[in-house]
Design brief:
The protein has about 220 residues and is α/β, with parallel strands linked by helices. The protein has a domain of about 140 residues: Rossmann fold (3-Layer(aba) Sandwich). The protein is built from 8 helices and 9 strands. The chain has a 5-stranded parallel β-sheet, sandwiched between helices. Strands 4-3-6-5 form a 4-stranded mixed β-sheet. The longest helix is centred in the C-terminal third of the chain and has 16 residues.
Length: about 220
């Protein structure tokens, strides 16, 4: 990505929430890592969870680790933009942290499923930009799951069985990217992000900027 020279005028804007969703193996994680590596104005959302930290995980960086009773109190107080229970553990996006970033003009990237995206849409629609990543074919999706060698054949079969239901939710998203080529997909999501940053409603400082222009 090419950023504007430092001497160009900047207009204060409100950040946005960029959601990437996809069935497992479609390339969402690769696209996410590329965006974070190339763009200093976007940061990854850090979820709260009730599960125990895994080796190497850092509290506040990988997750915010909380006890179950604290998580339940946070739900009751409306402190989550979205939350879900996955087997024996709970996960949620703290509202205050995200709002602080958006108010400061920073964008927040979310790696969540369609259910979490629905909750974000209900709670913060004007800040949300959602992208669904599709594989070019079912055969290619299976090949990617098998070649990354992270899962057993049983797990791959479960992921493939779940993929059909996940892909059925594509009409609920603002944008669709078919991930045939990773570089092109990253470029497509970057273009979406650039355009959404320029929306009039997010240009919080545009009124004052234009006023100054007219007075010169």
């Amino acid at each position: 990505m090419t950023f504007p020279p430092a001497n160009l005028p900047t207009v204060k804007r409100r950040g946005l929430m960029l959601v990437l969703s996809s069935p497992s193996g479609a390339g969402k994680t690769t696209i996410t890592r590329a965006l974070l590596a190339q763009d200093p104005d976007i940061t990854m959302s850090v979820s709260a969870t009730t599960r125990a930290p895994r080796p190497g995980e850092i509290d506040g960086k990988d997750y915010r680790f909380v006890a179950m009773d604290q998580f339940q109190r946070m739900i009751a107080a409306g402190e989550f933009l979205e939350h879900a229970r996955v087997f024996d553990n709970c996960y949620g996006t703290p509202r205050a942290t995200v709002e602080e970033a958006l108010s400061a003009g920073r964008d927040v990237l979310f790696d969540i499923d369609w259910q979490g995206t629905q909750q974000l849409e209900q709670n913060a629609r004007t800040d949300l930009v959602s992208v669904f990543v599709l594989p070019p074919s079912v055969g290619e999706l299976r090949r990617r799951l098998e070649t990354r060698a992270q899962d057993s054949a049983e797990v791959v079969a479960k992921r493939m069985a779940k993929a059909g239901d996940e892909m059925s939710h594509w009409p609920e998203y603002d944008y669709i990217v078919v991930n045939t080529d990773v570089d092109r997909s990253v470029a497509a999501v970057t273009a979406i992000l650039t355009a959404e940053r320029l929306r009039r409603g997010r240009q919080a400082g545009m009124h004052d900027f234009v006023t100054r222009l007219r007075g010169e």
